[in-house]
Write a structure and sequence with these properties.
Chain A: One of its GO terms (molecular function) is hydrolase activity, acting on carbon-nitrogen (but not peptide) bonds. Chain A: This is Protein fwdA. Chain A: InterPro entries: Amidohydro_3, Formylmethanofuran_DH_asu, Metal-dep_hydrolase_composite, Metal_Hydrolase, Metallo-dep_Hydrolases_sf. Chain B: Keywords: Oxidoreductase. Chain B: InterPro entries: Formylmethanofuran_DH_bsu, Mopterin_OxRdtase, Prok_molybdopt-oxidoreductase. The complex is a heterodimer of chains A (about 575) and B (about 425). By secondary structure, chain A is an alpha/beta fold. Helix content of chain A is about 30%, strand content about 20%. Chain A folds into two domains: about 100 residues, Urease, subunit C, domain 1; about 400 residues, TIM Barrel (Alpha-Beta Barrel). Chain A contains 17 helices and 24 strands. Chain A is globular and about 65 Å long. The model of chain B has no long low-confidence stretch (mean pLDDT about 95). Chain B has a nine-stranded mixed beta sheet with strand order 5-4-20-19-18-6-7-16-17, sandwiched between helices. Chain B has a five-stranded parallel beta sheet with strand order 11-10-9-14-15. Chain B is globular. The chains are: A alpha/beta (about 575), B alpha/beta (about 425). At the A-B interface, helix 1, helix 3, strand 16 and strand 17 of A face helix 3, helix 4, strand 8, helix 5 and helix 13 of B. The complex binds iron/sulfur cluster.
């Protein structure tokens, strides 16, 4: 494999503690190495440019059935943005729900090289994998959803952690999944009857269990197994005024639990898109930010991580396994609504949404996301996301960076809103003068996310031995830069390497790379009871046979990267 | 000795039953018995054993006779035809696996083809309606486990999806439906007294073509508002009663078929049927599902969705994907003379398109890939028989509820026969050479 030396760039690497020093980075055999190990490298001159590890997205909806529903039911999302096949690039289309090809290319253009699909319905795992296979360049993994799964509900009502863990191990293997995802625990099962669980103590109809028991039990099962990532949670009551108390109640479920994982993470709960869960008030009229209360908690508890779910003020397509929430949303905005309930496992909904800067609530939501990040004490635990495409499309990450890095750009937004005074009054952003550094951005998008996913041994840094995923941006941190240049530079990497293969050269995509699918194979002791339960449920309640459930390797996961976990002790 | 292969997936209809058992000879060459399948499903398997099956491509001659040719020649012919066309129509894709569909898409990209599938003449209207209003949907297991109200609208599963009622919709006992058939109320809306109507609790024998009116009347009835004495041939008392049955259910499922999608009103019928379902979600839980016909028509819409963003009628001729049903749909293109060659794989437009379209196909350079001899193979210039997907080669297929299932190979194809995917891969490679890519 070719050798490369990336010379003389301004390097930002939180793992190595490099804060913009000029350094050379060496690549050999797909990994970073010491420069002394190179024999005949190709030189990339990064003088005056920013160099970082490839970015790792901890939470996005980029593949699978609800994403594809979003594509197919929104032809309007393809207006004016279909691009032809050119060079190595396949045809591309779509804005808020791009085609798989565009997804891979657009992430690469932003310097992202690893992206997690945040919610995979197990029964649709094949579909999710087929889409990931057709997404070029980026490594991906998918999180199967567990929070409304009948096995989990039945085991956890009796607090059977070992059985839950065995089942999780079985399902991860069957679906080639990466982590334990939970969406509106219990609420989506209730939605099977048109109902919901609005707080963590609302009983799940017919199952004699509460969301709190589900969350706590899944954290314990996750730690029992010692999985690379923690339990990954979207809690109840998303999007409602006053919901910050539900969020705090949920956070507290993690208290006193320490991680048990060999993969270097420190958290036992990752709470996703917290912006949607930090609302005060009790109606849309007195809707306000409760980000300080949320961040006080996060800052003082090191066993949780969060991502922000930043609203980008675009027209987008919301999609989530929180079925009742999407029904609520369509009643609110009267736009088209797609819903799918999945037998024994989960549900989902999709509704287009316009976050208009002229609407007060949308502008407040925008401010809350930024406040979360700007009040964070430790940006190794607070990550940049837009919950793509829910709060906005992922292609806006560079714009979010601009807002986080420039007080001027934030104030221009705040004072430019139609309801400026009301927005400022209901939020705290105007009083925050913090501007994040590129080092902190690298924590939020690389080092921190890789660590939280249990992938610090592969990604997130330029440390010798790690995967040679590296991005070079046309951005000189030592110059006076207008805020706009941040967005331009970080949306358009000048060079990109994925596992040592050059993907982008002079802003142009030159290779489709050799993308991998990450999944976790957890070994557990034999558990005849769980295997009996699985067999019985397939016979009686599923509509596919057990023999046809498992996603076989070959064409679904043609290039797997399997992370082995041994939980037999 | 024989071998019994369990969990075999039936590659015939959108019910995609995956509990078949197939008995094959020890050497894996002969398929002997098919268990659990319905009559049409079993026939699909047994048909692969037909003695008179074609195993080599054949090219039509000037005098109307056929000449057997090798696969290499067939690949060259197909690649040349597609590469030299300005705007080929690549139609079908419903009876093959997603892997082949994916390769076909790339051929379409390079040659600037129009990609269309059988939805264009069946549930395309449903897809358009979903783009208008969305769709409250569920998997078939939700029906089995929860549904206590089942509506069949303009469809006749007793004949078209024979095991649908026993596997998913009427008879099975599920988690919350322990009484099976006894716990369900079944409503059939159909102008004909079909075999499905015979097992229903209520048959609303609607006047033909009046679906929209009846759907609309149901929405009025849900709200308890006044109706005319008779709507669509149904007395208003019956409509109020049906509305009450639906509203009082715990979980309502509406299945609909081509009786509504292709009758007068087309996508507007489906818009309204989905609106009925949306309305029902104000009172209870309800979902609606198209009865998709071919076992993998749903899959081709899914593959094109993630690759191009549109589920059917995808026009790639300008170098990027465009979609405008009525303009980019097969019959419209054929009848307006807008395509200059036709490639068919995995369906039979010769049997299902209007005669005027079939005539156009017969006048154009054309290739048909199909294990069977069909009306389409009879009018195309080149017929390439291939292995049966789901019998002689596996691959992914999407059930009518979008659930992907991997079909299984149970027997070997006759010596030397290619699969769809292999053939398309070779054509793609050759086209890349011709185009200098
Ligand atoms: S119902 Fe359809 S899928 Fe099932 S056996 Fe019959 S033809 Fe095959």
């Amino acid at each position: 494999m070719a050798e490369f030396i990336i010379k003389n760039g301004f390097v930002f690497d939180p793992v190595l503690g490099i804060k913009g020093d000029k350094a050379d980075v060496a690549i050999k055999n797909g990994k970073f190495v010491e420069t002394t190990e190179l024999s005949n490298p190709k030189t990339i001159d990064a003088t005056g440019m920013t160099v970082m590890a490839g970015a790792v997205d901890i939470h996005a909806h980029v593949a699978g059935p609800k994403v594809n529903t979003g594509r197919n039911f929104r032809p309007e999302d393809k207006l004016f943005n279909c691009t032809p096949r050119r060079g190595v690039e396949r045809m591309q289309g779509g804005f808020s729900v791009p085609t798989t090809f565009r997804t891979g290319y657009d992430y690469a253009r932003m310097g992202y090289t690893t992206v997690m699909e945040a919610a995979m319905p197990p029964l649709y795992a094949r579909h999710t994998h087929e889409e990931m296979r057709d997404t070029p360049i980026i490594d991906q993994g998918a999180f199967p959803v567990f929070g409304n799964n009948w096995f989990v509900l039945e085991y956890l009502k009796n607090h059977e952690i070992e059985n839950t863990a065995s089942y999780i191990a079985w399902l991860l293997k069957a679906t080639k999944g990466y982590a334990v995802k939970v969406v509106n625990p219990g609420g989506t099962e209730a939605w099977g009857w048109g109902l919901n669980c609005e707080n963590i103590h609302d009983p799940v109809p017919f199952f004699d269990i509460t969301p709190a028991q589900i969350v706590k039990g899944l954290i314990e099962a996750n730690e029992y197994l010692g999985l690379p990532h923690s339990m990954h949670l979207h809690t109840n009551n998303l999007g409602n005024p006053g919901n910050y108390t539900t969020t705090l109640d949920t956070f507290k479920l993690s208290e006193g639990i320490r991680p048990n994982s060999k993969f270097g993470r420190d958290q036992v709960m990752h709470h996703t898109h917290v912006q949607f869960h930090s609302y005060g008030g009790d109606n849309w009229g007195n809707f306000e930010s409760k980000s300080p209360e949320i961040m006080d908690y996060v800052n003082s508890h090191d066993n949780i991580t969060i991502d922000i779910g930043q609203v980008t003020l675009d027209e987008t397509t919301t999609m989530t396994a929180d079925g009742p929430f999407e029904h609520h949303l369509t009643e609110l905005n009267h736009l088209k609504w797609a819903n799918t309930d999945v037998e024994l496992e989960t549900g989902s909904g999709v509704v287009p949404y316009v976050y208009s800067p002229t609407i007060k609530v949308c502008a407040i939501q925008w401010a809350i996301g930024l406040e979360l990040a700007l009040q964070a004490k430790d940006l190794m635990r607070v990550f940049l996301t837009t919950d793509h495409p829910n709060a906005g499309p992922f292609i806006r990450y560079p714009r979010v960076m601009k807002w986080l890095m420039s007080q001027q750009s934030r104030e221009e937004m705040l004072t430019g809103f139609k309801n400026s005074d009301k927005v400022i009054g209901a939020t705290h952003l105007m009083n925050i003068d913090r501007e994040l550094s590129l080092y902190e951005i690298a924590q939020m998008t690389r080092a921190g996310t890789a660590k939280a996913l249990g992938l610090a041994h592969m990604y997130g840094s330029l440390k010798p031995g790690l995967e040679a995923d590296l991005a070079v941006y046309d951005f000189n941190p030592e110059q006076e830069n207008a805020p706009e240049t941040i967005e331009t530079a970080f949306g358009n990497a000048k060079y990109l390497f994925k596992a040592g293969t050059q993907i982008i050269d002079e802003h142009k995509i030159v290779s489709n790379g050799n993308k991998r699918t990450l999944w976790v194979n957890a070994k557990v002791n034999e558990n005849p009871q769980v295997m009996r339960d699985v067999k019985e449920k397939f016979l009686r309640y599923y509509t596919v046979t057990q023999g046809n459930y498992e996603v076989a390797g070959h064409h679904y996961v043609p290039n797997p990267y399997v992370i082995e976990v041994d939980a037999t002790q | 000795m024989t071998k019994t292969i369990p969990d075999v997936v039936c590659p015939f209809c959108g019910t995609l039953c995956d509990d078949l058992e197939v008995v094959v000879s020890d050497d894996g060459k002969q398929l002997l018995e098919v268990y659990n399948a319905c009559a049409i499903g079993a026939e699909k398997f047994l048909h692969s054993q037909a003695e008179d099956r074609l195993t080599r491509p054949r090219l039509a001659q000037e005098d109307g006779s056929w000449k057997e040719i090798g696969y290499e020649e067939a690949i060259e012919y197909t690649a040349q035809m597609l590469a030299n066309s300005k705007k080929p129509l690549m139609y079908g894709w419903s009876s093959t696996n997603c892997e082949a569909q994916g390769v076909g898409s790339e051929i379409g990209e390079i040659t600037g083809a129009v990609m269309d599938n059988t939805a264009t003449v069946c549930h395309g209207t449903s897809l358009i309606a979903v783009q208008d209003i969305g769709i409250p949907h569920c998997t078939l297991g939700e029906v089995k486990n929860r549904a206590d109200r089942v509506v069949f609208w303009g469809c006749n599963p007793a004949h078209a999806h024979p095991r649908h009622m026993s596997r998913y919709s009427i008879f099975p006992r599920g988690f919350f439906t322990g009484k099976g058939h006894k716990g369900r109320k079944v409503i059939v809306i159909d102008p004909r007294k079909t075999d499905t109507a015979n097992v229903a609790d209520v048959h609303l024998q609607i006047e033909q073509g009046r679906d929209y009116e009846l759907l609309d009347a149901l929405r009025v009835a849900f709200k308890g508002l006044p109706l005319p004495d008779v709507v669509a041939g149904i007395p208003k008392e019956q409509i109020y009663e049906a509305a009450e049955v639906l509203k009082s259910g715990r979980f309502v499922i509406i299945f609909f078929g081509m009786g509504v999608t292709q009758s007068l009103g087309k996508n507007h019928n489906i818009d309204e049927a989905i609106a009925v379902t949306r309305d029902l979600n104000e009172y209870t839980k309800a979902a609606i599902m198209p009865m998709r016909g071919h076992y993998n028509v749903t899959g081709s819409g899914a593959v094109w969705g993630w690759q191009f963003g549109f589920p059917f009628a995808v026009d790639l001729s300008r170098g990027f994907a465009r979609y405008n049903p009525g303009e980019t749909t097969s019959n419209d293109l054929l009848r307006r003379d807008e395509v200059d060659s036709v490639f068919v794989l995995g369906s039979d437009p010769g049997a299902h398109f209007p005669f005027s379209s079939v005539k156009k196909i017969s006048e154009l350079p054309s290739v048909c890939i199909d294990p069977h001899q069909t009306p389409t193979t009879a009018v195309c210039k080149l017929h390439v028989p291939v292995a049966f997907v789901g019998v002689e080669v596996g691959g992914c297929a999407y059930r009518m509820d979008n659930v992907p299932i991997e079909t299984r190979k149970v027997v070997d194809a006759p010596e030397g026969m290619m699969t769809d995917e292999e053939f398309l891969e070779k054509v793609l490679g050759r086209i890349k050479e011709i185009k200098g890519e």
